[in-house]
């Protein structure tokens, strides 16, 4: 009888521990997948170079088109520049002056990535009503 009670209690402790561990793991997975630290803003293509015959980061020779985009963060910081290398035969083509979406990490806004092209984005830079960090707030 005592053995059954001890094994049942031990099993209950293991079950509760497994549920707690599963909850913690699913919570950390949700935090890693959420885009809470990533923001998107509008950018403008400032330079398109190509076709360029060069080497990729792993050393393999390739022909690609370089697209340079300038963007400001939503807080008015910048301008920052991000570059994307596209294969020469890519369906996606960019021209100077095209507006694109730039996704960047709030903690490191200099390392953005081009997320796509848009034609409906209303403004570049920070939203109206937001002040940049360099501007002092009006005194009353």
Keywords:
140 residues
Q: How would you describe the shape?
A: elongated
Instruction: Give the strand order, joined by hyphens, for the main sheet.
Output: 3-2-1-4-5
Radius of gyration: 25 Å
Q: What is the string of helix and strand elements?
A: HEEEEE
Structural class of the helices, strands and pairings?
Answer: alpha+beta
Query: Tally the helices: what do you get?
Result: 1
Largest sheet: 5 strands, antiparallel
First-to-last CA distance: 78 Å
User: What fraction, in percent, of the residue positions are helical?
Assistant: 10-25%
Question: Strand tally, please?
Answer: 5
- Overall pLDDT confidence: 78
The percentage of residues in β strands lies in 35-45%
Please identify the oligomeric state. single chain
């Amino acid at each position: 009888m005592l053995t059954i009670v001890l094994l049942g209690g031990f099993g209950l402790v293991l079950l509760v521990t497994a549920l707690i561990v599963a909850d913690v793991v699913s919570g950390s997975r949700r935090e890693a997948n959420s885009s809470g630290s990533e923001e998107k803003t509008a950018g403008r293509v400032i330079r398109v170079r190509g076709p360029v015959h060069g080497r990729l980061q792993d050393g393999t020779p390739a022909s690609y088109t370089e697209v340079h985009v300038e963007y400001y963060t939503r807080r008015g910081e910048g301008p920052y520049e991000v570059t994307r290398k596209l294969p020469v035969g890519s369906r996606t083509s960019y021209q100077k002056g095209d507006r694109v979406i730039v996704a960047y990490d709030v903690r490191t806004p200099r390392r953005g990535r081009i997320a796509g092209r848009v034609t409906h984005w209303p403004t570049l830079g920070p939203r109206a009503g937001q002040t940049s960090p360099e501007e002092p707030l009006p005194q009353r």
